Sequence to fold (60 residues):
Amino acid sequence: MSTVDKRSWHKSSYSGNQGACVEVREGVVTGIRDTQNRAQGQIDLPSAEWIALMSTVRGQ
Fold:
């Protein structure tokens, strides 16, 4: 089991309250998945890529 598998999933603060939620599991590798379609898998990003993505989303 990798380090990322030992961490817990939590709702992204960017999801809002409209039922279209994204969950993340942060660590050395960050996992991203759709709350309503968990069985379809996840996207895993190295932490540096996750930080770059969040900087872009925030417009920084």
Q: What stands out?
A: DSSP finds one helix and four strands in the chain. The first helix runs from residue 47 to 58. The longest strand covers residues 29-34.
